[in-house]
Design goal:
5 helices, about 25% strand, elongated, disordered N terminus, binds zinc ion
Length: about 160
C-alpha cells in the first residue's frame, strides 16, 4: 500500500465523517461549493472538464446531521456582558480558519442558561477558538478530547 495514503487514512480513521473519503474521486459539495481533489479540500473549485461527484462534504453533512465535532461552553459573567464582542471574535476566527481548512466551520452559537454554547464541524476550529478567547479576553479554558481524538469539548470561563 502507498504509505502516504496509509498515513492519511490513519489520521482520519476515527472520524466517521472523514474516513470514507479516501475512496472518492473528485467531488463538489452542492451546499457550500467546496471541492475535493487528490485527497484535498479547497475553495478553488474544479474545472468544468473535471468529472466530479456532487455530494455533501463532511462539514455540510455534520451540519445536516446536527453532529458537531467541537462543543464549546463559554461561561461566566463576562460572557453575558460582552456577548457581541465574543460573537464577532468567533466569526472572524472562523473566517480565517476555514479559508485554509475548508471543513472547519462554526455550526451554531446559542444563548443558554450557563452561557454561550458554540458548536463546530471540526476539532481544530474548536481548539483555535478556545485559544483565541484566552488570548483576547484572558479567563481560563479547559480542553477535553474524546479517547479517539475525533471530538473536542472546550470550556472557557471568565467572571
Ligand atoms: Zn459542503
Amino acid at each position: 500500500m502507498d504509505t502516504r495514503h496509509d498515513q492519511l487514512y490513519q489520521q482520519d480513521v476515527h472520524d466517521p465523517y472523514l474516513r470514507h473519503w479516501h475512496a472518492h474521486g473528485n467531488a463538489l459539495c452542492p451546499e457550500c461549493g467546496v471541492s475535493y481533489r487528490a485527497g484535498r479540500w479547497s475553495w478553488e473549485g474544479l474545472d468544468d472538464a473535471e468529472q466530479a461527484e456532487r455530494t455533501l462534504c463532511p462539514a455540510c453533512r455534520r451540519i445536516a446531521d446536527k453532529a458537531p465535532a467541537g462543543n464549546l461552553t463559554l461561561a461566566g459573567s463576562f460572557v453575558r456582558e460582552h456577548s457581541d464582542e465574543i460573537c464577532n471574535l468567533l466569526h472572524n476566527t472562523e473566517a480565517l480558519e476555514k479559508r485554509e481548512h475548508p471543513l472547519e466551520r462554526l455550526m451554531t452559537i446559542s444563548d443558554e442558561a450557563e452561557g454561550l454554547m458554540v458548536t463546530t464541524t471540526g476539532i481544530h476550529l474548536a481548539n483555535r477558538l478556545g485559544h483565541v478567547l484566552e488570548a483576547a479576553f484572558k479567563g481560563h479554558a479547559d480542553y477535553s478530547y474524546s479517547d479517539d481524538r475525533s471530538a473536542l469539548r472546550v470550556r472557557w470561563e471568565r467572571d
